[in-house]
Amino acid sequence: MGTMDIDENAPVITRDEILIDAPLGTVWGLHTDISSWSEWLPDIDSSTIEGPLQAGTVFRWETFGLSIESTIREIDPPQRIVWSGPAQGIVAYTSGR
């Protein structure tokens, strides 16, 4: 499976990193247990996934008053997950690696 490239000409690009002192499997499990996001992410009000954790699966989540429907675009466990989802006319691609 090929990886999605970032559009370096996009109007907004953000990159964030954090070092977590935990096994990769633990971090991957938390990051991809979408239905449990609201239990540990204070900015997520709710989240549900509508199928298996694979490309093409849709999940819905709410944050800061926005209801977002995202689609998993790429997944390479336990290294990378990419999803997209429009909110207020903006289509965002999120990549966790």
Short recap of the structure:
Helices cover 13% and strands 39% of the residues. By secondary structure, it is mainly β. It has one domain (24-96).
Describe the structure.
This protein has one domain. It contains two helices and five strands; from the N terminus they run ααβββββ. The protein has 97 residues and is mainly beta. The model has no long low-confidence stretch (mean pLDDT 84). The longest helix has 9 residues, at 24-32. It has a five-stranded antiparallel sheet with strand order 1-2-3-4-5. A hairpin with a 2-residue loop joins strand 2 and strand 3 (66-76). The protein has helices spanning 24-32, 37-40; strands at residues 44-49, 58-63, 66-76, 80-87, 90-96. The protein is globular.
Percent range for β-strand residues: 35-45%
Counted by DSSP, the helix tally is 2
Task: Calculate Rg over CA atoms.
Answer: 13 Å
The structural class is mainly beta
Shape: globular
How confident overall, as mean pLDDT? 84
Enumerate the strands of the largest sheet in spatial order, edge to edge or round the barrel.
Answer: 1-2-3-4-5
Major sheet attributes: 5 strands, antiparallel
Strand tally: 5
Distance between the ends: 15 Å
Q: Write the H/E string, N to C.
A: HHEEEEE
Overall domain count? 1
Low-confidence stretches: none
Name the helicity range.
Answer: 10-25%
Can you give keywords for this protein?
single chain; 97 residues; mainly beta; 5-stranded antiparallel sheet; 2 helices; 39% strand; globular
